[in-house]
Design brief:
This protein is mainly alpha-helical and about 50 residues long. It has one domain. About 75% of the residues lie in helices and about 0% in strands. Helix 1 runs antiparallel to helix 2. The longest helix is centred in the middle third of the chain and has 24 residues. The two termini are about 25 Å apart. Keywords: Membrane, Transmembrane, Transmembrane helix. Pfam families: DUF5993 (PF19455).
């Protein structure tokens, strides 16, 4: 479910932009960017567990 958060927030941002709510759309886009940055940091600093 957590992996869907950036897609959901980007969808909300696009929907708001299409409806003409530019300020709200920008805030949702910034939320999407923050989620991407948090997940990027998490995946770059966590150990890579590969079972071979």
């Amino acid at each position: 479910m957590v992996m869907m958060l950036p897609f959901l927030s980007a969808l909300i941002s696009a929907w708001l932009a299409w409806r003409g709510h530019c300020r709200a759309s920008l805030w949702w886009w910034l939320v999407t960017l923050a989620i991407f940055l948090i997940w990027c940091r998490f995946h770059m600093t966590s150990t890579l567990d590969i079972s071979l």
